[in-house]
Amino acid sequence: MFDGVARRYDLLNTLMTAGTDRRWRDAMVAAINPKPGMRVLDLASGTGVSTQALREAGADAIATDLSVGMLREGRRRYPEVSFVAADATQLPYADASFDAVTISFGLRNIAETQDALAEMRRVTRPGGVLVVNEFSRPTDAWFNAIYRQFLGTVIPQIARVSSNRAAYDYLAESIRAWPSQAELADIMVAAGWHDVSWRNLSRGIVALHRGRA
């Protein structure tokens, strides 16, 4: 599904969020707090926008995604980045091989959420961190109502002009079905992560979860 939208995916995300996606990405990088030589796995990396941001902040970041089309577009844009095709539930990396793992707006696309989180735990060194940047649920009832209306009206309009309508129909549906902030934290704990916490971005449209291996 994502192969067909790879070329315009990042542009449409920026337009759809009025540029707020960049602030969310900056928040993820700050939560990782990259240091020179720090090995970071950017999972569900898409075209590598977040991977490049981590690299620019000093990390040795590797992009990994299941979509070959996304990886192909990423290699075209960022030839210096290492792109690896892999399933998030069966990562081709050794145990404890990363200082940090991050996944931005991709966890809800993995049916076996807890299995994927456990696999991320496996490849993270003891004491390393996981940062999950994902759509969530606004905490204010009135704002949540407005947001739900946005999901039901604006995103379908984008879907109609997109080259892959199914991808954007799926986007709205997957956001509505995604667990709350507290529910996702519980899933992370069940997958083996410790000291799990989160903070809301943009009134809870996005939540940034952080856990320690």
Automatic annotation (TrEMBL):
<dbReference type="Pfam" id="PF01209">
    <property type="entry name" value="Ubie_methyltran"/>
</dbReference>
<keyword id="KW-0949">S-adenosyl-L-methionine</keyword>
<protein>
    <recommendedName>
        <fullName>Demethylmenaquinone methyltransferase</fullName>
        <ecNumber>2.1.1.163</ecNumber>
    </recommendedName>
</protein>
<feature type="binding site">
    <location>
        <begin position="87"/>
        <end position="88"/>
    </location>
    <ligand>
        <name>S-adenosyl-L-methionine</name>
    </ligand>
</feature>
<feature type="binding site">
    <location>
        <position position="65"/>
    </location>
    <ligand>
        <name>S-adenosyl-L-methionine</name>
    </ligand>
</feature>
<comment type="function">
    <text>Methyltransferase required for the conversion of demethylmenaquinol (DMKH2) to menaquinol (MKH2).</text>
</comment>
<dbReference type="InterPro" id="IPR004033">
    <property type="entry name" value="UbiE/COQ5_MeTrFase"/>
</dbReference>
<dbReference type="GO" id="GO:0032259">
    <property type="term" value="P:methylation"/>
</dbReference>
<feature type="binding site">
    <location>
        <position position="104"/>
    </location>
    <ligand>
        <name>S-adenosyl-L-methionine</name>
    </ligand>
</feature>
<feature type="binding site">
    <location>
        <position position="47"/>
    </location>
    <ligand>
        <name>S-adenosyl-L-methionine</name>
    </ligand>
</feature>
<dbReference type="GO" id="GO:0043770">
    <property type="term" value="F:demethylmenaquinone methyltransferase activity"/>
</dbReference>
<comment type="pathway">
    <text>Quinol/quinone metabolism; menaquinone biosynthesis; menaquinol from 1,4-dihydroxy-2-naphthoate: step 2/2.</text>
</comment>
<keyword id="KW-0489">Methyltransferase</keyword>
<dbReference type="GO" id="GO:0009234">
    <property type="term" value="P:menaquinone biosynthetic process"/>
</dbReference>
<keyword id="KW-0808">Transferase</keyword>
<keyword id="KW-0474">Menaquinone biosynthesis</keyword>
<dbReference type="InterPro" id="IPR029063">
    <property type="entry name" value="SAM-dependent_MTases_sf"/>
</dbReference>
<comment type="similarity">
    <text>Belongs to the class I-like SAM-binding methyltransferase superfamily. MenG/UbiE family.</text>
</comment>
